[in-house]
Amino acid sequence: MYLIILLCSFLLITNRVQFQEIMLEKQYECLSDQIRLLQEDQDYLKIRRSVEDTLLYWLEDLKLRRVQNLKRETYKLLSPVLFNQKKDKALLFLGILRRRPDFIAAEFVQMITAEKEGEYWQFYYSGNVTFSYGYPDFRRTQYTFEELTEFSMKRIIEDGYFKYNTCDVDHYYVNNKWFADWLREEHQEFLKDRIYSAPPPI
């Protein structure tokens, strides 16, 4: 009797795990379709241009210290952009690849959060989560941006972007999870932390 109960428990757990794996794959397909359909949307194109211009402004004009590592690496804005219902908040993802493939370290995906202030987007970089992906088995072959995109999408799904076991977006995820007063305060410190080629004016 005990063995029958044990076997039934094992089968139940196995079926549950298999169902979860199938559901994650289904949610990944749903998110892929969502992003593919969005890529011709004007709001999608505008926010991507805006964040790319902002990154260059932070790097070259403001010379912000916390983004200077981008000059030493290869980076690219990945395809996913996750908007809320009103399209006044969004999550974006910056893939960062090492330029030295013999350097045993992690590749990164830096989340960038965005909220609209009037007609303009305000982007928050510092303080946001960074997904890191070490090289498996100390391989020296770099990941690709396509792999980083896939990893990030799966990470977001596992983190709760969709409602449990559905392809229905949980709007709390974009609306509330990643936006708080401390993030805005951190952004102000981020903007003050600059590299000067000469002493700053008194």
Question: How big a fraction of the residues is strand?
Answer: 15-25%
Cα(first) to Cα(last) distance is 83 Å
Q: Report the order of strands and helices.
A: HHEEEEEHHH
Segments where pLDDT lies below 50 for 5+ residues?
none
Shape: globular
The class by helix and strand makeup works out as alpha+beta
Report the average pLDDT across residues.
Answer: 84
Radius of gyration: 20 Å
Percent helix, as a range, is 40-55%
Number of separate strands: 5
Tell me the number of helical segments per DSSP (H or I, 4 or more residues long): 5
Question: How many strands, what sense, and barrel or not for the largest sheet?
Answer: 5 strands, antiparallel
